[in-house]
């Protein structure tokens, strides 16, 4: 199936987890002779399949997907490295006359791919000191400090996400500016139409709970056990992923498996709210309903948005 009108140079499908982004991305890529570029930070990791709801080969419907399974679970995530890789894929696809369809809910990764963001370097001494403080005092104490230095960043970063808190404090110390000051207003690198998939909170919460149940049934605990043998517990980023962190705690005897499942649902609901808040701040995102009642109309409405952007 091909469009009668050319697609925008880049299409981005964004929004909270469980909203239906992945299926819409596949549909748009097929329609506009495109390929999908992953923008979910945890789907970059090899072997993290069930807990990240990574599409199977069958679900991808023959559409090539890029930037999946590229990092070991022991490797720390780097949005600057992702930016380099994503732009290389986007540029390659554009040069080949294909439509890049960026799909994912990692807001900073999406912006890093399509906007002119520069990410400050690191200072090993500052990083080591902050990580030592994290180890000694825990992420809560550092989050309080971040809230005082940069309230907006503190809202965007979970109090339990020690790695991101350390990075934000490091940037503040290196640059002398709030962490959020390094995220300027929209300065696009590509002509992009951004489609946000929105689902009302009660329905989204139900979807999240059902998704977590299905992950457990599909063997998430065994997947985590396999990855633990490959070093997952030592991975500073991958070990904090939703579901994986909770199962690791259960495997360590810190909670029961049922408690881990309940906490995964709770943490994922909270995360979805933060994703929604992030994308709502960008006026370029055009929102469409991904509710069950509107699911059959979602592809048609998304096509209309893309084609309207081309002819505007």
How is this structure best described in words?
By secondary structure, the protein is α/β, with parallel strands linked by helices. It has helices at residues 21-31, 79-95, 107-114, 124-137, 139-149, 151-156, 162-175, 201-218, 220-229, 244-251, 257-280, 298-311, and strands at 10-14, 34-38, 65-66, 99-103, 192-198, 285-289. The protein has a six-stranded parallel sheet with strand order 3-2-4-1-5-6, with helices on both faces. Helix 2 (79-95) crosses helix 3 (107-114) and helix 4 (124-137) packs across helix 5. The longest helix has 24 residues, at 257-280.
Largest sheet: 6 strands, parallel
Subunit organisation of the chains = single chain
Mean pLDDT: 93
- Give the N-terminus to C-terminus distance in angstroms: 23 Å
Binned, the helix content reads 40-55%
Tell me the strand percentage band: 5-15%
Radius of gyration: 19 Å
Helices and strands, in N-to-C order? EHEEHEHHHHHEHHHHEH
Number of strand segments = 6
User: How is the largest sheet built, in terms of strand order?
Assistant: 3-2-4-1-5-6
Helix segment tally: 12
The assigned structural class equals alpha/beta
| Weakly predicted, low-confidence segments | 1-5
Shape: globular
């Amino acid at each position: 199936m091909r469009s009668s009108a050319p697609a925008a140079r880049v299409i981005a499908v964004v929004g909270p987890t469980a909203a239906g982004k992945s299926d819409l991305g596949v549909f748009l890529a097929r329609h506009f002779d495109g390929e999908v570029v992953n923008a979910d930070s945890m789907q970059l990791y090899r072997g993290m399949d069930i807990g990240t709801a990574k599409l199977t080969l069958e679900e991808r419907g023959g559409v090539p997907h890029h930037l999946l399974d590229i990092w070991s679970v022991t490797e720390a995530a780097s949005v600057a490295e992702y930016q380099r890789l994503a732009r290389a894929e986007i540029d390659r696809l554009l040069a080949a006359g294909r439509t890049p369809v960026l799909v994912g809910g990692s807001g900073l990764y999406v912006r890093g791919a399509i906007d002119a963001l520069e990410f400050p370097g690191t200072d090993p001494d500052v990083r080591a000191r902050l990580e030592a403080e994290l180890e000694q005092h825990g992420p809560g104490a550092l989050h309080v400090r971040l809230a005082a230095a940069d309230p907006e960043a503190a809202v965007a970063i979970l109090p339990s996400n020690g790695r991101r808190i350390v990075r934000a404090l490091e940037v503040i110390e290196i640059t002398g500016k709030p962490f959020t000051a390094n995220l300027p207003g929209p300065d696009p690198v590509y002509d992009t139409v951004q489609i946000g998939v929105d689902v009302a909170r009660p329905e989204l919460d139900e979807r999240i709970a059902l998704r977590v149940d299905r992950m457990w049934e599909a063997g998430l605990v065994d997947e985590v056990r396999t990855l633990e043998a490959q070093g997952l517990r030592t991975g500073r980023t991958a070990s904090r992923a939703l579901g994986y962190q909770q199962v690791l705690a259960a495997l360590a005897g810190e909670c029961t498996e049922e408690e881990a499942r309940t906490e995964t649902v709770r943490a994922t609901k909270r995360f979805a709210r933060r994703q929604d808040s992030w994308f709502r701040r960008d006026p370029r995102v055009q929102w469409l309903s991904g509710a069950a009642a509107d699911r059959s109309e979602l592809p048609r409405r998304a096509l209309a948005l893309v084609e309207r952007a081309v002819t505007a």
